Amino acid sequence: MTAAEYNLCVEKFADAIYRFILKNLKNEEKAKDIIQETFEKLWIKVSSVSFEKSKSYLFTTAYHTMIDLLRKEKNITKFMDQHFS
Predict the structure, then answer these.
(1) Residues of the chain by 3-state class (helix, strand, coil), percent to 5
(2) DSSP class of 46
(3) Dist CA 69 CA 84 (whole Å)
(4) What is the DSSP letter of 2?
(5) b/e string for 64-79 if b means 16 or more Cβ within 10 A?
(6) Closest by CA position to 24, among listed 77, 54, 56, 69
(7) Fold for domain 3-83?
(8) Which among 52, 63, 60 is positioned nearest to 9, based on CA atoms?
(9) What is the per-residue pLDDT across 7-66, written as a single tens digit (0 to 9) for each?
(10) pTM of the prediction?
(11) What is the distance of C-alpha 39 from the center of its chain?
């Protein structure tokens, strides 16, 4: 994928991915963070992800990033409950 194709991905898919994540998290700041992290991950793998597969890659990566965040928050909550109650 070229830099121009990467920029086109940002233009085409950022809003849809943001709405997808926001619908699930109901937190604008966390959704924005996930979008940024998702596009960062795409940029890191820009040479191995084809433009044709970029939409699928972005939605899958955003979903997994969201799940990782939720798991991390759940573990932090468990830790706080166990050690500070």
Answers:
(1) 85, 0, 15
(2) T
(3) 22
(4) -
(5) ebbeebeeeeeeeeee
(6) 69
(7) Rna Polymerase Sigma Factor; Chain: A (1.10.1740)
(8) 52
(9) 999 999 999 999 999 999 999 999 999 999 999 999 999 999 999 999 999 999 999 999
(10) 0.82
(11) 7
